[in-house]
């Protein structure tokens, strides 16, 4: 897949013989590859018809240091096109109209020879790609074109890729939706009631066109459907409906079924014997919908809330909203130090030209609205596009980024999801210091019941209490380090008084131990601490926070995936059957399923689950459906018999059959791994390496910071919250088939509750 933006005026593009002059206010001695000239020297080097890039600068201003770094990176690629780059230092001895007013320094000037061709605002040249693109595509244009090139389908490199023109206006939301629609399946085969079919196209606001087929004409119908799919790409989803496999009746005369994107609208059964008639029917209905949207600004758009892209969701949700920025304090280079040292602060580091930053700014303002008048924490923000040196000194190199500053303490980096609720939870849970020092049995009981911090229970439904004898000094220090590391994500406390044995005996805990209070369930569990190293304690607590029978979503899948156990997954088209859930929970409670990850997936909440099922089954069976997916080793997929009820007895007997080899897998996932075209694109490996380094390093000790302007040495985690892998390679590693059932059978005999 390739995406190309072509700035065109009759599709003629000025690509060579360009001179590009940029004026700035700053001087960066560390940038070596940019030639530094005086104005007179620069203009004397210009040659007719030749390209040149100059940057007029005045010294002693740090505001454009980031831009200069990007400009330095653009030198080599521009030289490949015969375009030179230079930086011109403005001096008092020489006069030049490019060394005039300050506003002139915020523009980039494009020359051919000594003729000025074009001016660019420097804030549009935010990175090396933007600089090169503006220079190479520099001719004045009437309008821009956006094309999506379908190169994945081309096996022969000598063939041209198909391309699709984006017809909507070039707005952030339209571009996002266009890319999503281009990446949706071209053609899908289904054998179910069209009224019940749900695909990604409907979520993107597109109607569905079903080409009705039968066995005798299957090949011809499929070719027709593919042709229609290409003609309607980005306008509608196209599906091949297999009449012979349907349990519902479709009128014999109908050969096309049309389903609108709006919920609850009945499908239309049509007789259209010409491809052009199908196209016209779709386009005519789309035209009506566009007219209605123009007439009524409040018409609901596509269901962006169901997507896994928070940027699109936030941008679309708040596209007409005026942000009350006055609820936050805008910081500058002059005010940053004084503000963060005067009171407790939350600081948002962002750049105003980046879409993710601006989308998260909306969530940040939402948090300010919720905290208005109730919090002593001051919410502030600093635009790193204007004050790059401040952000660099605070060790902020990626955006958006949030830090919490408290007087006399190290700044705390926020590494959660970029959403309102998660950030609000982080702020509220940081109102107190962790771990909480509990000093009496009564206070410990209030802590475990949720009464001690009942105003925080809505943000953390689980509380952790570490139990230690007074002499366990090292263990207490490690637990305190772990509690400090987890602050903002879970409530932790510590009890190590002389009467600690009263608590440990009551909850059958051998010291040292953790008590885990699940407030919504009213349960308290004890977890022994075989190792008290801080990183081990963090891992134990993180694992304990996982749900017993979770609903799998795009966001939480990595947390369970890393456990490297087979998935015992119940697929459901809605809420899970209470009887099925109860049966599985009973087996979990009795530890019969410790070797698995019992979970369920709601296709209505996570539509990608339908694509997973399509990789396992052909055609799709009726739901609910229980499958055992051995992803980490072997790739086998087993399905629970659909003619049996999911009970404790039936489930255990089925697992015994699997162990005895009496059940055959319905499919075996391919063993080959997905690989990127170039090592530089292997982002998943980069994420794994970063995660591994973070997990193995010793947790940082907290040291008092006397000057917040000093470099922040703490390392923050990668905010790539969701690791997405192709369905074909969704595999679990290191599962020994000969061992898992023995463990389950052993647990079955023990009949021991948590």
From TrEMBL:
<dbReference type="InterPro" id="IPR057639">
    <property type="entry name" value="TXNDC16_N"/>
</dbReference>
<feature type="transmembrane region" description="Helical">
    <location>
        <begin position="12"/>
        <end position="31"/>
    </location>
</feature>
<dbReference type="InterPro" id="IPR040090">
    <property type="entry name" value="TXNDC16"/>
</dbReference>
<feature type="domain" description="Thioredoxin">
    <location>
        <begin position="329"/>
        <end position="428"/>
    </location>
</feature>
<keyword id="KW-0472">Membrane</keyword>
<dbReference type="Pfam" id="PF13848">
    <property type="entry name" value="Thioredoxin_6"/>
</dbReference>
<feature type="domain" description="TXNDC16 N-terminal">
    <location>
        <begin position="33"/>
        <end position="136"/>
    </location>
</feature>
<dbReference type="Pfam" id="PF00085">
    <property type="entry name" value="Thioredoxin"/>
</dbReference>
<keyword id="KW-0812">Transmembrane</keyword>
<dbReference type="Pfam" id="PF24510">
    <property type="entry name" value="TXNDC16_3rd"/>
</dbReference>
<feature type="domain" description="TXNDC16 third thioredoxin-like">
    <location>
        <begin position="186"/>
        <end position="276"/>
    </location>
</feature>
<protein>
    <submittedName>
        <fullName>Thioredoxin domain containing 16</fullName>
    </submittedName>
</protein>
<dbReference type="Pfam" id="PF24508">
    <property type="entry name" value="TXNDC16_N"/>
</dbReference>
<keyword id="KW-1133">Transmembrane helix</keyword>
<dbReference type="InterPro" id="IPR013766">
    <property type="entry name" value="Thioredoxin_domain"/>
</dbReference>
<dbReference type="InterPro" id="IPR036249">
    <property type="entry name" value="Thioredoxin-like_sf"/>
</dbReference>
<dbReference type="InterPro" id="IPR057645">
    <property type="entry name" value="TXNDC16_3rd"/>
</dbReference>
């Amino acid at each position: 897949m390739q995406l190309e933006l072509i700035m065109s005026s009759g599709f003629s593009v000025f690509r060579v013989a360009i001179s590009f002059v940029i004026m700035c206010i700053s001087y960066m001695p560390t940038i070596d590859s940019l030639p530094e000239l005086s104005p007179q020297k620069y203009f004397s080097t210009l040659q007719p018809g030749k390209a040149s890039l100059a940057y007029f600068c005045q010294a002693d201003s740090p505001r454009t240091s980031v831009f200069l770094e990007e400009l330095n990176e653009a030198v080599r690629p521009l030289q490949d096109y015969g375009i030179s780059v230079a930086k011109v230092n403005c001096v008092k001895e020489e006069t030049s109209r490019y060394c005039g007013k300050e506003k002139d320094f915020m523009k980039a000037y494009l020359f051919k020879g000594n003729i000025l061709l074009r001016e660019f605002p420097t804030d549009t040249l935010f990175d090396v790609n933007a600089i090169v693109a503006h220079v190479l595509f520099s001719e004045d244009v009437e309008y821009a074109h956006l094309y999506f090139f379908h190169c994945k389908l081309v096996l022969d490199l000598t063939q041209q890729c198909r391309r699709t023109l984006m017809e909507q206006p070039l707005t952030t939301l339209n571009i996002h939706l266009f890319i999503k629609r281009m990446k949706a399946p071209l053609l899908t085969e289904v054998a179910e009631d069209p009224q019940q079919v749900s695909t990604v196209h409907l979520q993107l606001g597109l109607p569905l066109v079903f080409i009705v087929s039968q066995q005798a004409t299957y090949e011809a119908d499929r070719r027709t459907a593919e042709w229609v799919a290409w003609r309607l790409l980005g306008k509608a989803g196209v599906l091949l409906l297999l009449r012979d496999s349907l349990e519902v009746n479709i009128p014999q005369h109908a050969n096309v079924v049309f389903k609108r994107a709006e919920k609850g609208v009945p499908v239309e059964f049509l007789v259209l014997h010409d491809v052009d008639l199908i196209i016209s029917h779709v386009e005519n209905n789309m035209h009506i919908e566009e007219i209605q949207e123009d007439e009524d600004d409040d018409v609901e758009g596509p269901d962006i809330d169901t997507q896994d892209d928070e940027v699109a969701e936030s941008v679309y949700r708040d596209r007409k909203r005026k942000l009350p920025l006055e609820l936050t304090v805008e910081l500058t280079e002059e005010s940053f130090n004084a503000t963060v040292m005067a009171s407790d602060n939350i600081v948002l580091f962002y750049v105003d030209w980046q879409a993710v930053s601006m989308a998260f700014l909306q969530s940040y303002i939402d948090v300010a609205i919720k905290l208005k008048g109730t919090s002593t924490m001051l919410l502030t923000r600093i635009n790193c596009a204007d004050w790059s040196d401040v952000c660099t000194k605070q060790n902020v190199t990626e955006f958006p980024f949030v830090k919490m500053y408290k007087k006399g303490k190290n700044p705390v980096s926020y590494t959660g999801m970029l959403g309102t609720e998660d950030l609000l939870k982080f702020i509220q849970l940081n109102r107190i210091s962790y771990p909480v020092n509990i000093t009496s049995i009564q206070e410990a009981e209030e802590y475990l019941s949720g009464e001690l911090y009942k105003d925080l229970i809505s943000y953390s439904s689980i509380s952790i209490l570490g139990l230690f004898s007074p002499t366990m000094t090292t263990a207490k220090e490690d637990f305190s380090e772990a509690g400090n590391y987890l602050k903002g994500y879970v409530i932790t406390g510590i009890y190590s008084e002389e009467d600690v044995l009263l608590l440990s005996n009551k909850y059958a805990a051998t010291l040292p131990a953790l008590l885990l209070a699940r407030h919504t369930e009213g349960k308290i569990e004890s977890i022994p601490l075989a190792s008290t190293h801080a990183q081990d304690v963090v891992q134990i607590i993180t694992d304990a926070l996982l749900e017993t029978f979770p609903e799998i979503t795009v966001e939480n899948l990595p947390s369970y995936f890393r456990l490297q156990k087979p998935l015992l997954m119940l697929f459901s088209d809605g809420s899970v059957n209470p009887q099925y859930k109860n049966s599985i929970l009973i087996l979990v409670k009795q530890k019969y399923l410790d070797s698995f990850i019992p979970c369920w997936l709601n296709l209505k909440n996570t539509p990608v689950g339908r694509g997973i099922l399509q990789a396992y089954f052909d055609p799709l069976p009726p739901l609910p459906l229980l499958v055992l997916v051995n992803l980490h080793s072997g790739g086998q997929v087993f399905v629970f018999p659909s003619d049996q009820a999911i009970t404790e007895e039936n489930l255990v007997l089925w697992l015994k059959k699997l162990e005895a080899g009496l059940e055959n897998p319905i499919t075996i996932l391919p063993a080959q791994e997905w690989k990127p075209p170039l090592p530089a694109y292997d982002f998943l490996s980069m994420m794994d390496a970063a995660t591994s380094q973070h997990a193995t390093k010793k947790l940082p000790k907290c040291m008092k910071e006397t000057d917040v302007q000093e470099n922040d040495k703490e390392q923050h985690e990668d905010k790539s919250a969701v690791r997405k892998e192709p369905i074909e390679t969704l595999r679990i590693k290191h599962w020994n088939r000969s061992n898992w059932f023995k463990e389950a059978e052993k647990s079955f005999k023990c009949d021991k509750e948590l």
